[in-house]
Give the backbone structure.
Amino acid sequence: MNDELKDFESWSADWQSVSEEAPVSIQGIRRRVRRYTWYAALGWAINLVLLTVVTIFAWHDGRPPIIAGAIAVWGFVAVATVFDLRYRRGTWQASGDTTEDFVDLARRQVVAKLKGLRFGWYLLAGEALFFLFWIPWVVSGKPDSTPAKYLLAFGYMTAMLVAFGIGLSWLIRRTKCRLARLDHVRRGLERLDRAA
C-alpha cells in the first residue's frame, strides 16, 4: 500500500509540474482549431469580393492600364489561393478526439499559417515590382499628370507596402510565439504519457 501511495504522489507531482509549466486551455485549442476553418472561409470570401469589385471597376473604366491592373490582381489572388490551398492541406480535422490529436492539429495549422505568412513576403515583393511599372503607366495616361501626382501615387503605394510589411512581420512573430507555446504543451503531454 505504501508503494502505491508513493507512486501516486510521484505521478501527482509530475502532473502538477507539467500543468504549472504549460497552463493552456485544451478547450481553447479546440476552439482555435474550429476557428481556423472559419478564417479560411472568410479569407476566400474576401478574395471573391475583391475580385468582383476589381472586375466591375475595370469593366466600367475600360482604360488599358486599369484592365491590366485588374488582370494583375486576378493573378496575385490566384497565386495566393493556390499556395493557400497547398499549405493548408492536412490541417482541416484532427486524426482523433484525444487532446494530443488536437494539439497536433493546432500545431500543423500554425506551421501552415507560418508558411503562408512567409510566402506573403514573396507576394509583397511581386506586387511592389508590378506597382513600380504600373503606376507610371496609369498616371501618364491622365491628361493632367504632373510630377507631384507621380510622387503622390508612389508615396501612397510605398506607405501601403510598408504597412503590409510591418503587419506581416508582426503576424510572423506572433505565430512563432504560438508555435513555441504549442510545442511546450506537446512536450508536457509527452512527459505525462511517459509518466503514466
Notes: The chain has five helices and no strands. The CA atoms of residues 139 and 150 lie 7 Å apart.
